[in-house]
Amino acid sequence: MSLALGALFLAAPDATADPVDYGKGGAAKETGGKDSKGVYAAASVHYSGAVAKTGNTGNISSADVNWTPPSCWYAPYLGAKDFKKKMSESLKSQMGKPGMTGHAGAALSETQRHYEDDYGWTDTPGYKDYNVDKDGEGMFWAGVENPNEPDYLKRTACSELPFWVDNGEAPPPRYEQAITPEMLAALAYQHMELPGTKVTLAPEAITKVNLPTWAWLDKAVFDEVQATAAINVPGFNIQATTTAKPKSLTLSPGTADATTIPANGGCPIVNGKIGEPYAKGKAGETPPCGIIYRRSSGGETLPLKAALTWEISWTGTGQAGAIGMPDGTIEATQNITVEEIQSVNR
């Protein structure tokens, strides 16, 4: 019953004052005002460290196609007095709209009773006068959309009515999507921005058939990268830091007429580096990481793709040690021209 009421109320047509400020989770920094008692009027996820700007997703993709960050979650929303003001105004506005009768009107009336007259149902207690006698002792929690989730139904799935949580207490177990440090770690992962993967090549852009092309990465790429996501409001403070460490480089030549070195195209990190810079006098040697093209590109360019795999883990509130997450990858493409070796007949 509560889910139906919540979905109906939050999706009311032409609503001018929804009780839930969706999209706050995508902010690049925490937002929210304070009332006269210093209670936050709204809370959002605050991102810091190596993250994309303005709330955008980062440049890392999970190697596990089945892994996804949370599409929505429940988080602290408003103190009791602020919630009463916003919710009562929203209810009044929607109940006054033309045609708001039948099931829609009944649902709005029951929502009003739920917050004003202690009307509840199974596992969902009601409230007396919006819990204003407990103002400052807790907050109403509400659903938050992940603005980077493309699936509308998933993004709006946290549609139950806002519910009260006392300071220092966990949300009721029935709200399985209540925000947790693990969910914050996944959001930090989603927003993480890693250094670009531009592979240094020798020869650089034009190579020869059957001539080894050396490939390596600048050691600066191997710095550990961290991103943090946190929620900090009175009575509720959790955070998680997601860490990425370079693991291996995979080369894809852009043609079947090529041999990768190593044969599987994967160049591991050895002694803190991937590959080895080419030096004069090594033309006849086989590089530890590289490609040998077997056929000319015929005046065209070939897309050499380099995918750097990063090992991902997280730590956060309540966790004693690092916890593994699916590896992440970033990919870059460089254009390569392959020419025949010209011989001179005497």
Radius of gyration over alpha carbons? Answer: 28 Å
Please tally the β strands and state the result. Answer: 15
Low-confidence spans:
1-41
Mean pLDDT: 84
Main sheet overview:
8 strands, mixed
Structural class assignment? alpha+beta
Number of helices in the DSSP assignment: 5
Gap from first CA to last CA: 92 Å
Order of helices and strands: HEEEHHEHEHEEEEEEEEEE
Q: Percent of residues in beta strands? A: 25-35%
Morphology: elongated
Give the helix proportion (percent range): 10-25%
What does this structure look like?
The protein is an alpha+beta fold and 346 residues long. The chain is 16% helix and 30% strand. It has five helices and 15 strands. It has helices at residues 2-10, 80-95, 102-116, 152-155, 181-191, and strands spanning 46-49, 61-62, 72-78, 138-145, 163-166, 200-202, 206-208, 212-216, 225-233, 236-252, 258-261, 266-268, 290-293, 302-316, 323-339. Strands 1, 2, 7, 9, 10, 12, 14 and 15 form an eight-stranded mixed β-sheet that branches. A four-stranded antiparallel β-sheet has the order 6-8-13-11, with no helix packed on it. A three-stranded antiparallel β-sheet has the order 3-4-5. Strand 14 and strand 15 (323-339) form a beta hairpin. Helix 1 packs across helix 3 (102-116). The longest helix is centred in the first third of the chain and has 16 residues, at 80-95. The termini are far apart.
